[in-house]
Write a structure and sequence with these properties.
This protein is of the alpha/beta class and about 425 residues long. The protein is about 35% helix and about 15% strand. It is built from twelve helices and 14 strands.
């Protein structure tokens, strides 16, 4: 049974709002396994309470959590705090996150009390140390924040359904009128209907209307779309001194929130691919970290096709986010063939076969490349030529802009 603890307000939390703190900690909560390469991977637990308190302290030290007109005063006050006072402040802010429903503590809700003092050089948490979990409320909040930031960056303030060049009969009129045909929504264009009858019968009263006089308004045909995000979670996404997976996750979460709130007729599902591939619920995406080392793009395409065959939508598309060429293949006997060097003829040919099947099924593939090495560019060029999709040279900074604009700009596509 959930317990609510009431404490006397002391003003010692600097007035920090839980949502502002969540925004400051968003990269930490969405971390993908990327960390200081000089640190030991085995000693790092991203859900350890010590790590959370340390990140809260870093957010406060940056000064961005304090109002601009009071920042200098609050920073001086913050820096003058004793280790004990700092420790109490950080624990109070952790409790605030829990009370607002953004995190929950494993075990006792007073778990922060038993964590190592963050003001000291605390070592890594061992087994049995206090931990926390991110709640679904946090994931929804982070998805909304990511979407809001991305849409603000590209100057979009309002969103709607996908419009096409096709005309259909509906309630909202946005096109010229047409003769009524059986099956059309009876959204009569009164002026055109009366004019047709008057032109045939002349201006008289009563006016005889015939079936051929009926005209109806045309409206924009709004299509539905089934989307599968194929997200590369191979180990290369956090190598080479750059975390590419966290921005990719944030964009995928933002797109999921966009579809759920603005395009209710659409569907979106997620496929992770690495040595193999598996489907992942969008709600679980924020908790995912990078996996094995190789890139089995073919398995990802196979699973994406299987998912899209279940959808009855006008448009079907695969959005593939990757930073590496295909380097793995699942053989008929179930074994995984791996070759990370160059463009392996067997891996590439089998993968492109699946691209060809996507085209035959009317599935569009748009690829967002987070790297520009020769092998990846050559592979993506072949994919684009086969399925007539699009390819984007993206970075961690503009991936969201490219992906969301591409998704919404499908309004110009003609549906047959």
């Amino acid at each position: 049974m959930k317990r609510i603890t009431y404490r006397k307000y002391t003003g010692e939390d600097f007035g920090v709002d839980a949502e502002d703190l969540m925004r400051a900690l968003s990269d930490f909560f969405l971390q993908s396994g990327y960390r200081d390469p000089y640190s030991s991977w085995e000693e790092f637990d991203p859900n350890a309470m010590d790590e959370l308190l340390r990140r809260i302290r870093d957010a406060l030290e940056s000064g961005e959590m304090f109002p601009g007109d009071q920042r200098q005063e609050m920073m001086e006050r913050f820096l003058d705090m004793s280790p004990e006072e700092l420790d109490q402040l950080l624990r109070e802010l952790a409790r605030k996150l829990a009370e607002e429903g953004f995190i929950r503590f494993d075990g006792d809700e007073d778990a922060p009390e038993s964590a190592s003092p963050p003001g000291s050089a605390a070592g890594p948490s061992g087994k049995g140390a206090p931990r926390f979990e991110v709640t679904d409320k946090s994931l929804d909040f982070l998805g909304f924040r990511a979407l809001k930031e991305l849409m603000g960056a590209i100057g979009k303030s309002s969103l709607g359904s996908h419009d096409t060049r096709e005309q259909a009969t509906g309630v909202e009129s946005s096109g010229s009128s047409k003769l009524y045909e059986f099956g059309d929504t009876l959204n009569l264009d009164i002026s055109a209907t009366l004019f047709s009858a008057m032109r045939r019968e002349g201006a008289k009263v009563p006016l005889d209307l015939e079936y051929r006089d009926l005209h109806v308004h045309q409206s924009e045909y709004q299509s539905s779309c089934a989307t599968v995000i194929m997200l590369d979670c191979s180990h290369s996404m956090i190598l080479y001194g750059e975390d590419r997976f966290t921005p990719a996750k944030k964009v995928a979460m933002a797109l999921g929130h966009l579809v759920r709130t603005q395009y209710p007729g659409d569907s979106i599902r997620c496929v992770l691919f690495h040595d193999s591939a598996e489907e992942l619920r969008m709600e679980e995406l924020a908790r995912v970290q990078v996996g094995p080392y190789h890139t089995n793009t073919r398995d990802g395409l196979l699973l994406a096709q299987k998912i899209l065959r279940q959808e009855k939508k006008d448009m079907k598309q695969i959005i593939m986010i990757t930073d590496g060429k295909p380097s793995a293949l699942t053989l008929e006997n179930g074994q995984i063939y791996k070759n990370p060097f160059g463009l392996d003829p067997l891996v590439i040919s089998k993968t492109l076969e699946e691209v060809g099947r996507c085209r035959k099924q009317g599935i569009l593939i748009n690829t967002f490349m987070l790297a520009q090495d020769y092998a990846l560019v050559q592979f993506v060029r072949n994919v684009t030529e086969i399925c007539r999709g699009k390819a984007y040279f993206a970075t961690t900074h503009n991936l969201g802009e490219y992906l969301l604009m591409d998704y919404m700009n499908r309004k110009s596509r003609v549906i047959h």
